[in-house]
Structures are given as structure tokens and as C-alpha cells.
Amino acid sequence: MKDIVAAPIFALLISILAYEIGIFINKKTKIAFFNPLMIAIALVIGVLLLLDIPLEDYKSGGDFISLFLTPATVILAVPLYRNINSLKKDYIAILGGVAAGCVTAVFSIWGLAKVFGLPKDLLASLIPKSITTPLGIELSNQIGGIPSVTVAAIIITGIVGAVFAQWILRVCGITDKTAKGIAIGTSAHALGTTKAVELGETEGAMSGLAIGLAGLVTVIAATILSGIGMF
Amino acid sequence: MKLLRQFLIVLIICFLGEVLNKVVHIPLPGSIIGMLLLFVCLLLGIIKLEMIEEISRFLLDHLAFFFIPAGVGLIAYAGILKRNLIPILVICFATTFLVMIVTGWTVQIIKRRLKRR
């Protein structure tokens, strides 16, 4: 029995199964909080703990899945390319907003982490929390973070963004469709974008564009700041 | 064969990204250099969207799935997470709101200023 659950096939099997269950729950309830990835991760962790399977055994198959992360990051150029036309009209406002948002993200996370006295590796893990997961994992690795913690922070951020976006934007008087989309995509990546798509076509396209732009700006900015010893 | 051939194009770009990172020492992660390479190739028409259409759909449709192992890796960090749970949650909530507001306001203000001129 032990050999069977340690085989890569088992890890692959429970991962796909958990993901299917996550998607099913998300589609049935239509509640942003029930994020498929979060449900899948929780289910797999649950199975490993329940059957007393060591993480190393799961990793034998898990590494096979993680292998796809690099191609999946590279392919993000495709949606960015598809959305490039929507950038042309308001490019100064869009690039200005994304840049302001990314700088705010890095410095506010850095500042709060200092206030709480978080250890350095946790701070580095939280820096990429607003950007899309593939870029976030790479950035976390690059600046000395813990990629697993980064994934968790990215999911929490996305859920928070998706759940509260409509309310925050209304309270703060952000009514322009482009501004709404860019704000959601920059702060809450692809998960927030699912909400932006619900708000409207312009909001959705703009949010999709912001995922790629904010990811790139944050990676470049954080790499430079890390290089000069900020974290 | 189509999917494999398209995957080959993506893998070549991944590999070039790694080479530029490791050999030429560009300080960005290899996959992000690869993303920029593919973006430029698409803009210049060196790679047409049709040449990678199926593989990009496969990867993008299942994007979240590929992160499950990374997320499951959290088990190893349960202790450090538990000790810092409140700060992490506060940071996740507060900075997400802040970034959303700053970004939205900036776009809206710049757009209105440019229109007035």
C-alpha cells in the first residue's frame, strides 16, 4: 500500500481529482471565496495528512506538474499580446496607474512587514502577492522568498480582491471603466479579473491587460530593489 | 503531433530564457525573459498566434492546476505560518485594498486631466 501511494501516478491522480472537485464546487456555488485552486490544495493536504503520506512522496508526482510552470509563465505573453489593442487608447493613464499600484504594493508590504517584524524570507515571500502566480513564484525564488508561502498569499490576495472589489471601487468613487479594470488586475491578478469580467467587457479586458503589465513591472522593480539590498 | 510541435516552440523559448539568465546573466528569472521573448516575437510576427494556439489554450485553461504542488508545499511551513498568521492576513487585506485604490485613482485622474486639455 505504501508503495502505491508513493508512486508519482498517485500524486498526479489526487491532484487532478482535487482540482476537478474544486472547479465543481466553484461552479455550483458561484462564490469567489470557493476558489478552485484553494480547495484543491486543501483537499490534497487533507489526503496527505489523513493517509500519513510524506510530502516527499507526493513531490515525486508533484514535480511533474510543477514542470509546466515555466511554459505556463512564458505563454502569458499570449493574453498580453491579445489585449495590446486596448492599451493603445489610454496608454499613459494605464501605465501610470499600473506603475503607481506596483510601487505602492512593494513599499506597503515592506513597510507593514517591518512594523510586524516579520523575518526576511517571509517579507520576500509576500512581495509578489499581487501578481499572477507563475511570475510570483519566480520572483519569490529570485529574491529569497518561500514559493509555497507566496502561492498562499497570492490566492488570499486574489480572493480578497475579487470579493471586495466592487464595494471598494464604489466607496472610493472609482467609476471609470478603464480605471476599475486596471485597479482590479493590478491589485488582484487573474482571480480579481474573474470579478472584473462580471462587471463588464471593458473592465475585464483592462484587468486582463493589467495582470501582465503589473507582473512585469513588479518583477523588474522588486529585482532592482532586492539588488540594492532592500529585502 | 500538432500539440507536441507547438509545445516544442514554447520549450525553445523557455530554453532561450534560461540561457539568457544563466549564460548572459540577465538578472530576471528565465521564464520571465522567455515571456518577454515570446511577446516580442508575436509583436514582430516571427511567431504567429496560430502556431501556438492549441498549446496556449491548454496551458492557460489549466493554469491554476499547475500551482497545486507549490501550494501543497505549504505543509512544510505550517509552523512559520501559524506564528505569523495575523501579520500575514493583515498585510494581504490592507495592501490589496491600498493598491486597488491607488491604481484606480491614478488611472482616473490622469485620464480626466488628459481629456481636459
TrEMBL record, chain A:
Is the keyword Repeat in the record?
no
Q: Where are the transmembrane segments?
A: 6-25, 32-51, 63-81, 93-113, 149-169, 209-230
GO cellular component: a single term = membrane
Family matches, as Pfam families: LrgB
Source organism, top-level taxon: Bacteria
Indicate how the chain sits in the lipid bilayer. Multi-pass membrane protein
- What subcellular compartments does it reside in? Membrane
- Where this protein primarily resides, as one coarse class? membrane
An MF annotation (GO) of this entry: hydrolase activity
Q: Which key words tag this protein in UniProt?
A: Hydrolase, Membrane, Transmembrane, Transmembrane helix
Q: What is this protein called?
A: Putative murein hydrolase (TIGR00659 family)
The species is: Ruminiclostridium sufflavum DSM 19573
TrEMBL record, chain B:
* Record bears the keyword DNA damage: no
Primary subcellular site in the record, as a coarse category: membrane
Q: How is this protein situated with respect to the membrane?
A: Multi-pass membrane protein
Please give the start and end residues of each transmembrane region. 31-47, 59-80, 86-107
Q: Which UniProt keywords apply?
A: Cell membrane, Membrane, Transmembrane, Transmembrane helix
Would you tell me the Gene Ontology cellular component terms?
Answer: plasma membrane
Q: Where in the cell is it found?
A: Cell membrane
* UniProt key word Manganese: no
PANTHER family found in the cross-reference section = HOLIN-LIKE PROTEIN CIDA, HOLIN-LIKE PROTEIN CIDA-RELATED
What protein name is recorded for this chain?
A: Holin-like protein
Q: Which organism is it from?
A: Ruminiclostridium sufflavum DSM 19573
